[in-house]
Amino acid sequence: MNEAFFGAIADDFTGATDLAAMLARAGVPVTLRIGVPEAGTRATAFEVVALKIRTLPPEEAVAQARAALRWLQGAGVRHVFWKYCSTFDSTPRGNIGPVAEMLMGALGAPRTVHVPAFPENGRRVFMGHLFVGALPLHESSMRDHPLTPMRDSSLQRLLKPQTTRGTALVDWPTVRQGAAAVRAAVEAEAGHVVLDAVDDADLAVLAEAIHAMPLVCGGSAVALPIARHLRDAVPEATVPPLPVPGPGRLVLSGSCSEMTRRQVADYLRRAEGYRLDPVELSRGGLADARHWLEQQDPASGPIVYATAEPHAVARAQEVLGVARAGALVEKALATLAADAAGRGVGAIVVAGGETSGAVTTALGVTRLRIGPEIAPGVPWCFAAGGPALALKSGNFGEAGFFSDAFAMLEGGAVAAQ
Ligand code: ADP
Known about the structure:
Radius of gyration: 21 Å
Oligomer: single chain
Number of helices: 16
Distance between the termini: 21 Å
CATH topology of the largest domain: Rossmann fold
Number of strands: 18
CATH architecture of the largest domain: 3-Layer(aba) Sandwich
Shape: globular
Mean pLDDT: 93
Strand order of the largest sheet: 9-10-5-11-4-1-3-2-16-17-18-15-12-14-13
Largest sheet: 15 strands, mixed
Bound molecules: adenosine-5'-diphosphate
């Protein structure tokens, strides 16, 4: 089959990986595209296109999403999923609403549904209000997000300034009546229909009701039960065997998030490590780190990390500026990744969302097949002819993540998928 059946457009990179992992968990073969594929690129049944459009001006975000849709439509897509964050991250002007309306227009859909709920991560929607843990969205830490501060919890009110069509709610009491009641309630509305969901059982009800719709908008969680429904409609949707990575392992960490700091500390007890310092990089370049890495036994899985405590990060940022410190580290880790790929290293774990973007760009990756999850939202990914990649955003995974990731490869779990 060279046709896309289900096609998702994701508004950021790690969100796309998260969604792709959910689809893989449902047992369907998933292809993740970094950016819009070139015209004529053959599609697979379940496609996820990763864009980076969350905070762009709405016109630019819509243009990129339209290009992604055109490629998917050219491949015959039947079901489109507009993936945004489960905390509804958006600026007041967009881009959740504008992209949703462009997609509705292009698909001829009089209505769409919004399902940001991600109960496993504490994101629940009740009576149209989004909660993060025990707090309404606008009282959670998202209130002070540097780029998309969320100052309201009502999804209908949040959609209003971003949209031209009306909004409606299918509330939790209706969801509790089951899929038929939800389907009838959705079909009675036009425009943007917000759906309540407080737990995974609610998401299963919603998926039963909405999986056949041409356009669903939301977080990654509802995509899992939706994919379970769609799997049966795609006879070819068996997962072909994944490649078995060759020998040689490497960890590259550019994340300074709390969980990554624990993971690096844990891994340093088992592996040789080299600490990158942005100030030293600005003075002496990367030669020393490159030399060190060349001396290591690749089979032992060495780690190169810029991961540091907040005070050290602040000091580097004072000397170099925030952007330059970040860029130096990203470029260094991306270069080391390209070196390692050139030496034939079989698998690389990358920690950090921005860092992952820099590494995949340096490796020239445009297409990844999604393998089994190491931790929720972090699958092993496979690019043709390159190392297997695990791209971990800052706070994902448990303390032993790096060792667990490699153990999974050694244990044959990947080949057996
Ligand atoms: P996360 O997923 O944890 O947010 P990212 O890779 O997205 O991780 O972001 C971390 C940013 O911090 C990157 O731009 C990285 O280059 C930068 N960085 C990493 N280590 C340091 C450091 N020691 N000093 C200053 N900046 C750093």
